[in-house]
């Protein structure tokens, strides 16, 4: 069967996590900065390293079969690609921001103003939705600098910690959209057995991030309280300890309510609790 091609970002915010995800899926490949294409040694896959802006188009045209890219870029390029899997990294928000001392108070105050952005398509859709007539000034980067230079009254750009806004004298003003990295695919690819195998591996890696492996010791008389707290987990493993009347319980706890669960287990008599990361969960 023909190798699949996956396009990932060459350098930038999504590069490292995309490479790590593929490596965690057990794929062996060289990752030299200078090579823009690499073949996976132990899986029928080639990896293309591209500018993120080009990834949705490559996938839509079938030049690449799959891609890892932010939702903001998918929307901006309006490429016709299928969402295969949300990946949980590259989380950020596209926001409107204004200078700290701006007199803009309401969305309608943007009428007649100039807004700098690298996302003119998404911004225009947003302005249309709120019936705002503003001038969009497209720039390809360092957008946060533009109000200070007198180029724009507001900006529309990606915000994560808010540090870049702050250090450029700006404040967030309105949310335009949230985004995370997505595995996208060409629409003719669905059902492809190589994709099915890759997706199973990706999901097992993503699922593993949501849980911790926990081993605890408990006196046998307290075991029913512990197993009651672990209801929902498929029957925890219980192993006798060398010390008479004690057992070790092995289980998996979700990251979401981890501390709450641990504290309740302690109250119920759990001791010597050991927590380990999980590499993969295969359902
Ligand atoms: N501060 C951030 N925190 C989290 N995710 C971010 C952040 N900034 C950007 N992203 C996400 O990562 C993607 C890539 O961001 P990056 O800044 O590397 O893009 P770029 O400069 O356009 O890169 P390229 O050189 O590939 O065109 C963005 O499209 C967005 O989805
Ligand atoms: O809210 P913050 O945590 O400060 O992050 C936001 C910044 O991150 C991104 O740029 P990046 O640092 O990736 O550089 P780039 O402009 O070269 O893409 C984005 O374009 C913002 O400028
Ligand atoms: Mg880009």
From TrEMBL:
What is the protein name given in its UniProt record?
Answer: ATP phosphoribosyltransferase
Molecular-function GO term, any one: ATP binding
Q: Where is the Histidine biosynthesis HisG C-terminal domain?
A: 208-280
What cofactor does this protein call for? Mg(2+)
The record's keywords, sorted A to Z, are: Amino-acid biosynthesis, ATP-binding, Cytoplasm, Glycosyltransferase, Histidine biosynthesis, Magnesium, Metal-binding, Nucleotide-binding, Transferase
User: Which PROSITE patterns does this entry report, sorted A to Z?
Assistant: ATP_P_PHORIBOSYLTR (PS01316)
> Which pathway or pathways does this protein act in?
Amino-acid biosynthesis; L-histidine biosynthesis; L-histidine from 5-phospho-alpha-D-ribose 1-diphosphate: step 1/9
> What compartments host this protein?
Cytoplasm
Q: What is its EC number?
A: 2.4.2.17
Per its database record, what is this protein's job?
Catalyzes the condensation of ATP and 5-phosphoribose 1-diphosphate to form N'-(5'-phosphoribosyl)-ATP (PR-ATP). Has a crucial role in the pathway because the rate of histidine biosynthesis seems to be controlled primarily by regulation of HisG enzymatic activity.
Which reaction is catalysed here? Answer: 1-(5-phospho-beta-D-ribosyl)-ATP + diphosphate = 5-phospho-alpha-D-ribose 1-diphosphate + ATP
**Pfam family membership, one:** HisG_C
Per the record, the GO terms for biological process are: L-histidine biosynthetic process
Q: Which organism is it from?
A: Rhinopithecimicrobium faecis
Q: Which GO terms describe its cellular component?
A: cytoplasm
The entry summarizes how activity is regulated as: Feedback inhibited by histidine.
Task: Give the ATP phosphoribosyltransferase catalytic domain ranges.
Answer: 51-203
Recorded family membership: Belongs to the ATP phosphoribosyltransferase family. Long subfamily.
Q: Which InterPro entries match?
A: ATP-PRT_HisG_long (IPR020621), ATP_PRibTrfase_cat (IPR013820), ATP_PRibTrfase_CS (IPR018198), ATP_PRibTrfase_HisG (IPR001348), HisG_C (IPR013115), N-reg_PII-like_a/b (IPR011322), N-reg_PII/ATP_PRibTrfase_C (IPR015867)
**NCBIfam families tied to this protein:** hisG (TIGR00070), HisG_C-term (TIGR03455)
